[in-house]
Design a protein that fits this description.
The protein is mainly α. 96% of the residues lie in helices and 0% in strands. It has one helix and no strands. The longest helix is centred in the middle third of the chain and has 97 residues, at 4-100.
Length: 101
């Protein structure tokens, strides 16, 4: 029924249609790959930014702990100095009283 010319034409048409379909699929696949790469790059950049912020936050926390410790030491030292001052002032007052009498 089919002539050889019709068979050849049908085979070429099917082959051409398959080729067009493959090219179309390949183009879609390429777009998906590019989009995925772009999204991955954005996520990597965001991740690096967050890691930098985390590192900075950790460094600030460490500095805060150091400053808190130093503040506690200074408060204790201030209390000791106030106590010494009060003792010296009382000794001074006693000496003044002794001199006046």
């Amino acid at each position: 029924m089919w002539t050889s010319w019709a068979r050849i034409w049908l085979a070429r048409f099917c082959s051409l249609k398959l080729g067009v379909t493959l090219v179309h699929l390949l183009n879609k696949y390429t777009k998906i790959i590019r989009k995925t790469r772009n999204e991955n790059d954005k996520l990597e950049n965001e991740n690096e930014s967050l890691l930098a912020k985390l590192k900075s936050r950790d460094e600030l926390r460490d500095q805060n702990e150091i400053m808190t410790t130093k503040l506690k030491e200074l408060k204790l030292s201030l209390k000791e100095l106030k106590d010494k001052h009060d003792k010296l002032e009382s000794v001074h007052d006693e000496l003044i009283l002794d001199i006046e009498h």
